Known about the structure:
Blueprint: H1 3-23, H2 27-50, H3 52-59, E1 68-70, H4 73-81, E2 88-91, E3 108-109, E4 112-113, H5 115-119, E5 125-129, H6 135-143, E6 147-151, H7 157-170, H8 174-188, E7 202-208, E8 214-217, H9 222-229, E9 233-234, E10 242-244, H10 247-253, E11 257-261, H11 262-267, H12 270-275, H13 284-287, E12 291-294, H14 296-300, H15 306-316
Parallel strand pairs: 1-2, 1-5, 5-6, 7-9, 7-11, 11-12
Antiparallel strand pairs: 3-4, 7-8, 8-10
Helix pairs in contact: 1-2, 7-8, 8-15
Amino acid sequence: MCKAGFRVLTEAAFFHFNQLMFHSTLKKKLYKQMKLNIIPLAFLALSLGACNNNTKEAAATLPDSTKIVSLNGSVSEVLAGIGLEKNIAGTDITSNYPESMKAKPKVGHNKNINAEGVMALQPDLIIGLKKEVTPVLAAQFKAAGVKLLLVDQDYSVEGTKKLIHLLADSLHAVAKGDSLVQVLEADLAKIPPVAANAKKPKVLFIYARGTGTMMVGGTGTAIDKAIALAGGVNAVSEFADYKPLTAEALVKANPDIILLFDSGLQSLGGAAGLAKVQGVRQTNAGKNNKIISMDGELLSSFGPRLGIAIQELAAKIK
Length: 318
């Protein structure tokens, strides 16, 4: 018996019983008998109706033979989290969690997907983010007769929950989606609260691929939002998205902490290599050797592991 059915049938049964007793001249004589008979009958009839929707939902499941191509790392993590990793026939190159996802065939970067590579995997369903799949690419998939599911992603706690629920609901895995959100909420609850009057550290994010490719993260990015959730403040607020790093801008921002992806810091030769970049030594971060790094996919994905990511970042920017 489902909880919703029990709640509805109980309320309805007692209402019907009271109404009948009110209008009956046999109230005293029939009270005991009606109390025993009406409630069980109403209980049975109403429970079947109230549970009908849940029965239909349980019956609608994704066929085991369904082949999915995921075009985004966050999407892939959610699919794995709701038990559909076995259905994933291929992914973009940012889909590397869980570890077993690395063995899946890759179809390119999420912002530069090759349609032919995707179609070669003969998928039944392609899932990606609206902001990453171009209209031209979407048209190619639809012209080939393949189902396409595109979802929004907002860099926030509520946006992450919405992403999980939307994918789980669309793929008939509602209960598993609810469970995944509960795990996320438990992880987020472990993040130490920041006092209202506490001074927030200024954090500058640098995206690096060697000294030849260094970009500074402005407002509105996934990292910008992660820094705020961890109790810090972006050292750059003059522009949105990313811009090339300059010594002048670095000194002006004067961050307390410089944050990079693990791979980015390694590409510069570690903290010692970053210290050689013009302008770094003139910042508070450079003077105090406050250089930190994190796994890029964990920090920027805003997927099921968001709580774990923010816990780690919060601990590092203290």
